[in-house]
Design goal:
Blueprint lengths: L1 E5 L2 E3 L5 E8 L7 E8 L6 E7 L4 E4 L7 E6 L4 E6 L8 E9 L8 E2 L3 E5 L1
Parallel strand pairs: 2-11
Antiparallel strand pairs: 1-3, 3-8, 4-5, 4-9, 5-6, 7-8, 9-10, 9-11
Amino acid sequence: VQLVESGGGSVQAGGSLRLSCTASGVTNFRNTCMSWFRQAPGKEREGVARVYTLFGSPYYADSVRDRFTISQDTGKKTLYLQMNSLKPEDTAMYYCAAKSGICTGDYPYWGQGTQVTVS
């Protein structure tokens, strides 16, 4: 399984970015938990949003709820994170992670990360 993120960059506060994560080698994307995490320098990794692709029901961290939207394109095996009203505290490396089945337990598959900088 390989996860490849894209879409990061630098943006001013209040701006928007859309991250993408394309999964290859996933045998059953329709039964996969796909998640976005982020880690800022000197801080612990934080779960931002996740979705169980079978039901499409998203979960958001309080810090991003109502600003970020997680979505999926099952045909393209791609996960998205639409980030609006960005704040400087959203600055971090963003990682895509995946696991088979529901969203409990550890994630065996991780992307390389994409940097988001908000000034």
